[in-house]
Structure formats: structure tokens, C-alpha cells
Design brief:
369 residues; alpha/beta; 9-stranded mixed beta sheet; 5-stranded mixed beta sheet
């Protein structure tokens, strides 16, 4: 199952709206005969890929799957039917699929066909891996990771705005790997105006793994000359704004290839966070990476939707004159703080990466890509 989960991670950021699944087929002689994982775009499924590689050697064997095989008819036939036709004797699934179209029916269908079924092997790891898919199905919004790159005292820039570079080359490379493992990268129009970023994955050979770029822009003030707008025809770019934006600006962005999405405003007149996340979920998005300035981070923490923090911390101190990673978001008492549990600490010399998980439902505590 550990091998199946490793294969599943290959799909993170590339298979939405589907879950990232891995499958290992073991023959009657105990040898691995087939491996598969969900392909880009969500099709073919992992089981189909593994069975295709195993061929006749799957008969009488065992399929290890990181998520319950699907039992509904979509663009392709159910994976349960493919496993039954292949003649496997046993299916080991890490966890049930929360999708109401499956939700245990896939496992029951296998049992009804005389296949031995076991569920729960590496369950927590499997649910963490697909925390985004679970969050979207159960809560109607994507899983949200806030990425911070700060000094030891939590500063992201000097008081004059200088920030390149607080963290080192390895930390920045890992940051790009995080981009590759998420469906969407969210930033603000202020960050676009200040830095004119590409918001892509720039690791060699992984450029095509870049996430959909999302800009929060209440007034459509993002420059039409920015890199985001200039490359929108080549890379999916969505601009979230408030209802009834200026028509001429909207049309100009659409002409550039940007999809403009209107959501209700919050109390400050900016695109409301929860409405934004629900709109993303409606488009199939399961995993969101938030990168931006102190104000954008504060809006997501204020809304209580940050599931995980990926905190790159350099061995340096700026002090109180520097800009904080998160602006004030209305905490007057200690019981209003947002609470997290540290799951992992990783060295990315000379910096550290700390992974924090929100207390409550299991979240993806791994570093994919």
C-alpha cells in the first residue's frame, strides 16, 4: 500500500476534479505485475492503468488501491467492473471513497462478485494524501495551504518592501514543487502589481505541472501589461472580482484569455473568501496554494479556511520594522487564535520548512513533488 500511495502522489495537482489514486497488482507468485496511477485530467484511473500493464497476470492476484474503486459510470466504465473482469482474487483498499456515487458501493460490488475485500490499510495516510478531494466532497470547498517564506521572527520584507531573497535557493525550489502539487495558486492583485510574477512552476522539466493561476482583484486593477495577463492565453488564469465589475476592464481581460469570475464582496468590498473557494470547488478544484502578501494571508486566516501551513523559515531576523507575514485579522483574545499542529520539520539548507496542520480533520501533511 505504501507503494500505491507513492504512485498516487504523482497525480497531485494534475488530476482534479478526481482524486489522486495509486494501484499495485500482485500476481499469484507474489511478484508485482502491474502499477498504475490516475493520469492527468483524471482519466484513465489507476486501476485501469495497472490492469493494462498486468494483463493476464492479474488473474488470481491482489489489487492494492489507495482509494475505494469507483462503481459508477463516467467517461469510462467502473473500475470495479474492470477488476472483476480481470479475475483478481483480492482487493485491498486504503479507505472508502466519500463521493456519494461510490461511498461503499464499489466495495460491496466486489464482494458480491466473490472477491475478498479488505479496507483500512494505511487509512490515515490515504486520507491525508487526498485531503483536497475529501474536503471538496464533504465540505464543498478545496483544501487550502498557506505558503509562507519568512525570517525567524515572521517577517516577509523590510519596511521598504525588499524581500528578494529572504530564503535560499533550495527553499525556493521546494516552493515551486509545492506549486506543482496543487491545482490552483491564489495571489492578490497587489502582489501582481508589486512583483509582476509568473506564478508558474519553474523546476526543469516540470513547467507543464504549473497550477491554474488565480488573482483576487476587487477593482480589476491588475495591469493588462502584467506577465499574468500577457501569458493567459497559454496558461489558465482566473481573475476573481466582485459582482458587476467595470465592463470595459472585464472585456479587456477576457480578450487576453483571462476568465473573469464574479463573487459577492466581503465587508471590505473584496471578493469574499468562502464564496471564492466554493466557486473553485464548483469548477472541480481540490487543492489550493495561497501565496501573497500580509493582507491576503490575513483574509484567509480570518475566514478560518487555512488547512495547512507550509512555512519556509530562514535563519535571519529583521525585527519589528519589517513587514509581518500576516496582517491583523481581528484577534482580541487568545481563544480567537487559529490553532495548528506541527507535523513535519524538514531541512532545506540553509533554511527550514515546517508543515503545520489545522487541528481537527486529518490534512495532507506531506510535501509532494
Amino acid at each position: 500500500m505504501a507503494a500505491a500511495l507513492t504512485l498516487a502522489r504523482r497525480g497531485l495537482g494534475r488530476v482534479w476534479p478526481n482524486p489522486a489514486v495509486g494501484c499495485i497488482i500482485v500476481g499469484t507468485d507474489g511478484e508485482v505485475t502491474g502499477r498504475g496511477w490516475t493520469q492527468p485530467g483524471g482519466r484513465p484511473h489507476a486501476e485501469t492503468e495497472a490492469l493494462c500493464r498486468a494483463g493476464d497476470a492479474a488473474r488470481g492476484g491482489t489489487a492494492y488501491v489507495s482509494l475505494e474503486p469507483c462503481s459508477h459510470v463516467g467517461e469510462t466504465g467502473p473500475c470495479t467492473d474492470a477488476l472483476i473482469r480481470a479475475g483478481v482474487r483480492r482487493v485491498v483498499a486504503a479507505t472508502e471513497d466519500p463521493d456519494p456515487r461510490v461511498a461503499g458501493e464499489g466495495l460491496e460490488k466486489l464482494r458480491a462478485a466473490g472477491i475478498e475485500v479488505r479496507v483500512g490499510v494505511a487509512r490515515i495516510d490515504a486520507e491525508r494524501l487526498n485531503a483536497g478531494f475529501f474536503r471538496r466532497v464533504l465540505d464543498g470547498r478545496p483544501f487550502v495551504t498557506a505558503k509562507l517564506a519568512t525570517t525567524m521572527d515572521g517577517r516577509v520584507a523590510t519596511h521598504g518592501g525588499e524581500s528578494k531573497w529572504i530564503t535560499g535557493e533550495m527553499a525556493r525550489a521546494w516552493g515551486h514543487a509545492l506549486r506543482a502539487s496543487h491545482d490552483v495558486l491564489i495571489t492578490s492583485s497587489g502582489t501582481v502589481r508589486a512583483d509582476d510574477p509568473d506564478l508558474t512552476c519553474r523546476l526543469p522539466g516540470m513547467e507543464e505541472a504549473s497550477p491554474v493561476r488565480v488573482v483576487m482583484d476587487s477593482r480589476l486593477s491588475t495591469p493588462l501589461t502584467s506577465r499574468i495577463a500577457a501569458t493567459a492565453a497559454k496558461r489558465p488564469t482566473w481573475l476573481f472580482t466582485c459582482e458587476d465589475p467595470p465592463r470595459d476592464r472585464r472585456d479587456a481581460f477576457v480578450d487576453c484569455g483571462v476568465e473573469v469570475i464574479e463573487v459577492p464582496p466581503d465587508d471590505g468590498g473584496r471578493p469574499e473568501v468562502v464564496a471564492t473557494l466554493k466557486a473553485l470547488a464548483a469548477r472541480g478544484i481540490t487543492r489550493v496554494l495561497v501565496e501573497g502578501g500580509p493582507h491576503l494571508m490575513a483574509t484567509y486566516f480570518r475566514a478560518g479556511v487555512v488547512d495547512r501551513i507550509a512555512w519556509f523559515r530562514s535563519a535571519s531576523v529583521i525585527g519589528g520594522d519589517g513587514l509581518p507575514a500576516v496582517d491583523a485579522f481581528g484577534v482580541d483574545r487568545l481563544d480567537q487564535m487559529r490553532h495548528f499542529v506541527r507535523r513535519r520539520t524538514l531541512a532545506c539548507a540553509p533554511d527550514m520548512l515546517e508543515i503545520y496542520e489545522r487541528t481537527g480533520r486529518p490534512a495532507d501533511a506531506g510535501v509532494e513533488g
